């Protein structure tokens, strides 16, 4: 039996000021606004300033979430930052967030599950709260993914953007737990489909890496597209089945924002009307671990989430990794 339940008391998000439009990209690579809109649904994305780090983005989102939750940073006892663009290889990005927020009482770690990072971190924080290890957690998806993007590669550079989204999770009574069911999975046989090959222990940083440009991400777009749709549909269906909730009962599907065609295909296969599938990728592109918490914050502040609504978050990312969580909004 659960000792505690978990609830959300605050959300926050931040996207950098600099807007990079499709027309800007037309001047950088052989592409067109028309192609990007039609093939991805993205109109523009935000790019962090050179001096801005992922922890800076995380803190801006976290401060808003803390204010909404009426919580002081030093009341937090856990900070998890989901990111594939850490400030440094180590120490972990959550420790930088801790220092900047002065959240002195928190245990801090980062979690890397690419675009599924926020869903994974949400689950881990929830487990620690349910077990009574922690009572008040800050969970952030924060990405300066522009650091991994090859701005001469039209196959990938049009897709991504920087940003951060945060939630405050708190212990509550077990019967008030907002997470009704969840599912997570990975396929490590497909590590090479979407990856950064250089700069880790396999190919440590050095002049060769820069010469080969292997510090930039590469992707088999068509293959990833098909796998993303299947994995998100299967994960979402499994979570709905576990909770015995039908897709018609959902107020919102909140999918990872990678490509409008992926998102619409997932909604269609689950039998969810377009109006119930939340989308903001036209403004931000794919911000990796930050997409879902940015959506949640926009929806929350836009009063599109009412108490009792069923909200299904579903993600997919490099690894491969995927996962979903069904919430009943508090
Ligand atoms: N502008 C213009 N043309 C482009 C282009 C761009 N930015 N990027 C690719 N193309 C070209 C290709 O070179 C190809 O040309 P060719 O037929 O002469 O070889 C053509 O467009 C079609 O390429 P294709 O890969 O079939 O396009 P697509 O419809 O699959 O769309 C993606 C490409 C990348 C948008 C799509 O595959 C996708 O979204 N994949 C998943 C990406 C993703 O979500 N990744 C993150 C998961 S977390």
Question: Which short descriptors sum up this protein?
Answer:
330 residues; alpha/beta; Peroxisomal Thiolase, Chain A, domain 1; 2 domains; 5-stranded mixed beta sheet; binds coenzyme A
Write the layout of secondary structure elements.
Blueprint: E1 5-14, E2 18-21, H1 22-26, H2 33-40, E3 44-47, H3 54-68, E4 78-82, H4 93-101, E5 107-111, H5 117-130, E6 136-143, H6 154-157, E7 163-172, E8 179-186, E9 194-196, H7 207-212, E10 217-219, H8 221-243, E11 252-255, H9 260-270, H10 281-284, H11 291-301, E12 310-317, E13 321-328
Helix pairs in contact: 3-4, 8-9
Bound molecules: coenzyme A (COA).
Order of helices and strands: EEHHEHEHEHEHEEEHEHEHHHEE
The N- and C-terminal alpha carbons lie at a distance of 21 Å
Number of helices: 11
Strand adjacency order, main sheet: 1-7-6-4-5
Name of the CATH class of the largest domain: Alpha Beta
CATH superfamily of the largest domain: Thiolase/Chalcone synthase
Most strands sheet: 5 strands, mixed
| Share in helix | 25-40%
User: CATH architecture of the largest domain, please?
Assistant: 3-Layer(aba) Sandwich
Mean pLDDT: 97
CATH topology of the largest domain: Peroxisomal Thiolase, Chain A, domain 1
Global morphology: globular
Sheet/helix structural class? alpha/beta
Instruction: Note poorly predicted spans.
Output: none
The kinds of small molecule bound in this structure are: coenzyme A
User: Which strand-content bin applies to the residues?
Assistant: 15-25%
Q: Give the number of DSSP strands.
A: 13
